[in-house]
Amino acid sequence: MDFLNASQYVELFREAGYNNDLAANKDPLNNPLDYPDSDLQYVENRLDQYAGHSDWRDGAINTNWQDQAFNGGAGVTNVNFSASGGDEKTRFYLSSAYDKQDGILIRNDFERISGRLNFDHNVSEKFRFGANFSLTRTVTNSLPSDNQFNSPMQLVALAPISPIRDLNGELTDRPTTTYYNNLIDSENSSWTTTSLRNINSIYGELNVAKNLTFRSEFGLDNLVQNDDRYFGSRTATGQSSNGYGSSRWLKIATYNTNNFFTYQPFLQGPHKLEATLGMSFQKSENRFTSVDGQEFPLDGLTTLKSAAEIVDGLSTLTNASFLSYFTRVNYKLDGKYLLGLSARYDGSSRFGKSEKYGFFPAGSLGWLVSEEDFLKDNSYLSYFKVRTSFGITGNALIGDFDHMGLYEPLPYGLSPGLSPTQIANPNLTWETTQQFDFGLEFGFFEDRFTGEVDFYNKMTRDLLLLVPVPATTGFATQRQNIGKMQNYGIEVLLNSINYSNSNLVWKSSFNFARNINRVRALSKDQSAIPPPYSSYLNGIYVDQPMAVFFGPKYAGVDPANGDALYFKDEAQTETTSDYNTAARLFLGSPNPDFIGGLTNEISYKNLDLVFLLQGVYGNKIYEAAGGYYANNANWFDNNTVAQMERWQEPGDLTDVPQARLGYCNGCSASSRYISDGSYLRLKTISLAYNFPEEWNEKLKINNAKIYIIAQNMLTFTKYHGWDPEVGTEALSNSFSNANLFQGVDLYSAPQAKTYSIGLNLGF
Amino acid sequence: MPSKVFYIPIILCLGFFTLSCNEQLDLKPAQEIDELTALESDANIKRVLIGAYANLRKSDLWGGRILLYSEMLAANNEIRWEGTFTQPREMLNKSILTNNTFVTDTWLSAYNTINITNNILDALAIVKEEDQDRVKGEALFIRGVVYFELAKLYGLPYVSGNTDTNLAIPLILTPSRGVKNNGVIERQSVEQVYQQVIEDLTNAEQLLPETNGIFASSYAASAILSRVYLQVGDFASARDAANRSIDLASAYDKKLMPDYMDVFNKESDGPEDLFTIQVNSQDPENAMHLFYSTPEFGGRDGDVSILQNHLNLYEAGDDRLLQYQERAGGIRTDKWRDQYTNVKIIRLAELYLTRAEANFREGSSVGAIPLDDINRIRTRVSLPEKSNINLEEILKERKLELAHEGHILHDLKRTKGAIVDNNNPELSYSFDDPKLIFPIPLRELSANFKLIQNPGY
């Protein structure tokens, strides 16, 4: 995205102030008496302030703050090493890897070292056991979330007339910069997140009797994460308190066990049967501890030992558990007729006493048509299968104690108090999804061309939603099971070997998916859960896609006076400049109409070339920060170059309203900031060289590969923002539903174009 | 056969898991307790009462924003919003969106606080008898002041008349546990809401201890009550409440500080404070500091600047001019300069001004003659004593003494004044202009079909 340069900035903001003056019957340009009290003078005072030691009138300073936010040479390094071996009784596999990646933004990088060991041993014919062990350490230089002033992307808000450094070579800050110059964070803060994750599992498998085995698995996933932050005495965070530091520790331990019998009787004739019966249990425990302190003697001492004042500290514990019993039966007749039946009985701690358990059965049928006599000798069709299934699944992805009416500690004046946080819903229970699926699998010409096509229809009931309740109850929302949501669509996967001989192989793989999502019902008498915040547009509406954009529809600019206009009625025949009385309309869906991908792999002798194209079509993206950077000079945030198209005089035809300082002329959340998110992207292109056999033998290795990968090299899109592949950070909290803020871009950093060189070694 | 040896413990183990796992599904939160436990004992209810204060102190209530709203709506080209937040700017421009998050959050926090007080009042029987008056008095104080703030912000002014038909806000006087009838409820009239406020605060004044540390006392209740009576134009009652508060507070050594600027930026209550919101580094929110102060003092970027028009109102030599300092590219008031200092809610000086005005209007001299009360305020800031006084001068003294403390909008409304537009001096808003009240938040209208939107939205 392009932002205003210094002379454009000066032009637009002086005009914004002058327009206010004209509206108030003042003309400071032509009547010097009007000048002292005018908004034009106010703007010029601000320009003086933002220019610091320089003079905005001579245009000497022209800072591109956006460039400052991005890392010049984002690089990636990775090295892998693996070895496997063993004998008849014992097998092992071990690997280790190292990755390092610079973020696209300054102050952001990532380093990972990992190791893995898998091991299996047969004690006897009847008993075997094994274990997997993995350990990963990552070190990340972290950034605050995108909506914080010290997020690098927010540098784009600073005025291009502001110098980066003053005459003494120090970074400028407020009042010279409009907002905090967070480049100071680069010099005067540190924020490192170190995590250690250990995933272990062991299993034992016993042939209890003929055809009957028992397998028991136990796993432990342990994450320990430490977050050390220090904001020095020059940063916005530490400025008023001689530095601000924070040490945070997170420990998440999850253990699980699966125990099940498998029965595989040896049946006479065409019958094959496999049956499973068992249980599983999972419990996770999340512990968090943090200490914050301030008043540090100097910026070189950053651990909290040095803080003269500890201002905040806490520890929390939360946990959840799941218990399941399950059974599964698979039956095969003649090697071509398949039947599967399964059932689960799942219990979760997240629901009230009488509502903990859900029952989830499923069944499937399959027919391997290509095994039938009438197709068996067919030379074209090598594989053909028809399958269908129906089943119910459950979802408990909510807060750990959402069913309870709760009070939390909340102090006042250093005395401990209690305050309600949550309204009870003892009836809260599982959200369920009924899914029907019909699919075809096929292969032609000895499977040179294969594919799968699936049609599905899913109906989710009793959605676990946070439902707004009248605040007069004392609460904003209640977690409820309400409504119905449907997802139906088609998925296609095609694989083809286009060409193959001893030296050259060219394979392609194509996938396509179209999903249609509709909310079918909410609770009784309810047809909408409107957007929870004024600056966002995602809501939940019956017969619309989940998280559909809903709000005022921008109708462009009144050619007569430069007012931003919105449609006043549903038919979109009348317009109004009053945002409050604009009709609230559906403004598009963040869900794409379809997504697709194409992978090509070309191998020539020892060289492999792979490239992946991916695309998304028909989704909309809302630029939540548009009101700040594309607001025709509402306030002193730098604006996009497109804002120079603003309305200036009667008769102007444009989509950018008149610039009016301090008067939001079209800057509120509306379809003005929604644009098409469709894109086609060359996601990955890689070239690899596999060492020839004779090299491997000399080097005493199994295999070795050296490769170069480039990511995100090309993107075709009409999206207005930085990057259509937005990954919105979790904006949701207790007031809103998880996954509601889809298709929202709030200063989201674009994906980096990266090149990396790697080496894989296998022993 | 070795398999049998394994077989038995496996079955036992499965059985064991099934039994013990069932219990494993009964988990309890570690940071919260069940609502029934919170209200089951004397000790716990007193903790909930502290929690009611903790909600009242939130930044969207008395933690500062309620004061800011008054200043923004009545900016009168004397102050200016220069920050990036659009919510206060909408108030400055008198073009508030119905989904303005400040307007919404204040509504949410207010009713949350009211619900806590209703829960306490409902559970009063469990409180030890000797403490019942105090607990009840504090709960009524908090409920009364929150309804008062809501009535002023979301309803037309009392002095506009039609108090029986003009709508204020819904009145909830019983606790909600669970959402009954979807929680829908109508707005009550301005009259009904003000009557409830007066009843709550009158009862609170009688029940509360004369003095009560950082918590609501009898003199704080009568002080706020005098403000309510001023707002409804009942000057005799305002005078009497102010006089009761002055007398009682004085008995507990409350007095005007000798030096005006010593009143502000304090971490603990001073001799002049009758009620404040406690702020400290453990509990740092103070929205007035955040928006009025500047980065070197831990504020934002100097979001509110004071304009020369306001400074011109002071007489030369007025010590109150010392509060104005040039910082962060504009004139700032030092009343909210320092971080971690209390939010002034009501201080003794206001009561002298209220007593003076009410005595003057009633032609009485309860407690003191108006001239003496005004001169008390003037001499403290090094201004010469007046020898006679009129209403206009009393109101001006009040405006300057209490400037930037969240009074201006409500004083202009009750005195049927007008507010000049910041940009266009030819444009002004009359005291009863619907643009000077908040909309009912959009989220509330969609959750409660019985609510009617305010005129002008």
From TrEMBL, chain A:
GO terms for cellular component: cell outer membrane. Residues 170-695 form the TonB-dependent receptor-like beta-barrel domain. It comes from the Bacteria. It is a multi-pass membrane protein. InterPro entries: Beta-barrel_TonB, Beta-barrel_TonB_sf, TonB-dep_OMP_SusC/RagA, TonB-dep_rcpt-like. Keywords: Cell outer membrane, Membrane, Receptor, TonB box, Transmembrane, Transmembrane beta strand, Transport. The keyword Transcription does not apply. It holds the Pfam family TonB_dep_Rec_b-barrel. It is found in: Cell outer membrane. Belongs to the TonB-dependent receptor family. This is TonB-dependent receptor.
From TrEMBL, chain B:
Its main location: membrane. It comes from the Bacteria. Keywords: Cell outer membrane, Membrane, Signal. Coiled coil: none annotated. The keyword Signal applies. Gene3D superfamilies: 1.25.40.390. It is found in: Cell outer membrane. It holds the Pfam family SusD_RagB. CDD domains: SusD (cd08977). GO terms for cellular component: cell outer membrane. Belongs to the SusD family. This is Putative nutrient binding outer membrane protein. It comes from Cyclobacterium qasimii M12-11B.
